[in-house]
Batch of 2 targets.
Target 1
Amino acid sequence: MNSKQENSVQARNNRNVWIPSVDIFEDETGITLLADLPGVPKDAVAVRIDGDTLTIEGEIRLACPEELQAEYAEVRASAFRRSFTLSSELDPGRSESVLNDGVLKLRVPKSERAQKRRIEVKVG
Amino acid sequence: MFYASLSSRGDNIFSELERLQQDVQSLFCRTSPASIRSVARGAFPAINVASTSNSIAIYAFAPGVDPSTLDVSIDRGVLSIAGQCAKEVPDANGPVSVYAAERFAGSFDRKLALPEDANPSNIDARYSDGILRITLARKQKAEPKRIDIQ
């Protein structure tokens, strides 16, 4: 069974972290991950693959003037981090990611040999 | 208070349920209230409100929203933020399995009461990087006026 296994969240010491919501889809050629990252510009997010662990981390950057005082906040932490374990048939070296309107779309294809191949049956 | 004493007794059915409830909840809300998921499911987008002495800024965290569907309006001091967040499914030939579908999709409409001194005539709303930022000025406080007596 191919699947994305556990997600683990590691918060650094003394730091409030929020967990981005993700959608994960798998089709025959690979896995697509969509993550909600509002207020995170391209240079504030890092997608890392260490062996079989995929980590998305970064922080929200809001441009606001110094003297702004918060009155009501539903989002309080700026840093986020979420990790996934990739199964071995995925080929992280060929992954691609795009960040648009606060949504990160990451595509990790399956390696060639792992794709479903139809085997011809010879009769006779 | 009442519930805390009930669960501390430890061996009855309610404390078991309480422990189960807390375990399930801790799976979804690891850090509170910092987790973006600690907001109730119906409350998309998450909103932060901040102010200076002469302006109010409202940040709505709404990634993946089609800007043409965004509808921001003020009616009698209530700010309303509405729009549509399209469900994005990658097109692929063949079957697609879904392993996680945590992101919000569908239409949303959140209302926010503005403070009395908000000036609705001068509003700026900007959507970038998934954040809708609405700024409006506050009415200047009237200077105390001296009234001359005839």
Note: The mean pLDDT of chain A is 81.
Target 2
Amino acid sequence: MAINTQSNLPAPQQIYFDNVLLSVEQPDLIHKMCAMKRTMPNKSGNVLRQRRPGTLATAPIPLEGTGTHPALQLMSVMDFDIRLKTYGTGVAIHEDVIMCNQDSVLNEAALSLGINLRETEDQLIRDTLAATPGFINAVGGFNGDTPTNIARSDVDEVVKSLKKHSGKTFLSGQSGENKFGSAPIRNAYMALGHTDLIGQLEEIEGFINTWNYPNAQDVIESEWGSAGNLRFFLSPKGAKETAASLLGADVYDIFCVARDSYTYVDQNNYNSQFIYHGPEHSGFLNLYSTAAWKMRTGCGIVNDAWLVKFRATLG
Amino acid sequence: MNNDIIQQGYFTSTGVNYTIKLLSDMDWLRIVNLTQSAAQNNGYGFEYFWQRGMGTTGIMYYHPAGDHTMAVNSIASAFTAVNTGLQTLGPTIATTAGTNATRPVISTGSTAGLSDGCIVRLNSTAHTDLNGLDFTVDNVVANTSFRLANTLATAPGAIAGAGTWRLVARSIEEYKLIKPSARIISNITQATSAVVTTLVDHGLSVGQRVKFSIPHAVYGMVQLDGLNGIVTAVSAAGVWPQTFTVNIDTTGFTAFAYPTIANLVTYGAFTNAQVFPMGQGTTGTYNYTFEDAVTNQAFIGMILTAGTTGPAGNNADVIYWRAGKSFNQ
């Protein structure tokens, strides 16, 4: 008895295209979250100027019986200028693609461009934090390198440096709760680092992982845990210097920041523009369309004493 | 977008490699050396063409005799496309020795990609006080050696044997996205206006304000830690060691020392002495701005090689260029 199978009746359309796009790698972007965020209005130039008043000398001399006024003081200020620049990129899509492809290419382009925009923004902030301030090497670790892997004494040194200059912590502490395995969390500065540090952080004396926080509901995806007065936020886009240690290992830059240490600024309506030009813009034959993003942004450190680039290797 | 000319311009050659900075990518570049087009110099190139896909090779039109006749040839290593936003380390290349000097000479069998002003990173050498750090180099002798361009206050203390070097950047223009940026200090003089040397060329200019961090006693001049001052002079470009002068009196300070190999054995790991930019000094005593320290100076562009058969020409040649963009097939 004959039976018809796929071998003699192959399906003319052998592939069913699932039009639900697969998830795209979207790294945690951590470098913007600690910035002071400002928006400049249009038609106001391209530089944001921020001013910090200086301190005045204290006046410990008693005035009783003198009848005279003390000397008046001159005020001082420091201005910090952040220049905005425009960034952007895009894709061109030929009409053949639109005509032939079953998938929604423009949707894919929009997704890719959106991720690309935010990664670019994160990179610009990260590189600003990496380039300008001074650094502290980890020196208390055991790996014999320079810098060493992170020890608790290094964490304390960073915190001491920030605290010495009256840097304010970002996060208030969490009181201890009667939950198994949890521990109270101190008020903390933010430490922004690379995901390669996973495993290293757990080696720090007193490290508390996020799942051991008294209240894990306050934890965002990128947070990994805390040690001393630092809470660590990790990203695969964290700063890393290739072969930059004494022994040739990669060095990880962990940005430990207090409040108001750096500013991120955009200009009105220009922080994330998605720009689509249909094929009618491509010429008399309407051959291709374009999709692009554009932003106008700037970043700058406004108090170098409140930001420490903490360098460490892996143990 | 098809065959668009995105930028054009001209420059007068100084006889050294020239970088055309575009803020957009390019697919082709045409160079016309106006001076050599008019001249009748035998063997001199007067027009060059590069297109994406050619790598560093270009097409050169030149005078094959001492007249206005024309010939054509391909010319290697004439164009180097650069995108300072996408810098990666060069390949690992072996070194064979390093001298015990304040400007150590590093011997290597390959100086591929190196020229004066390049920045390299040393690894695995017996000069443990230099390993993992970035240095500007000069005195590049092809496939023989290069020298650390900026003077160390103290020689390493021993001759180095085998190790490796990697190219970090071809110049400080390509070194960091944000400029100027922090530097590790190699020397500071004791003077009424201190003269400062850094491992990588400082890239500062007169009027900028810098802050010092001397975090360890091994560096000697700990009195400078935390002080800031204004740059009052910088050494001439292209001449090493590169230094800058700052309006801080260091005559009463302890002498600066660069850590030696022996110091590393004694002290183990420590944080390097650094200087970092704080902004632009202004006329007021207290006011300064930070603008120069946060400016993204990254660029996409093309480095033109100088010389008789190079698109950057010889000294005083007037050179015109056009860059364009087109779809690729």
Note: The radius of gyration of chain A is 27 Å.
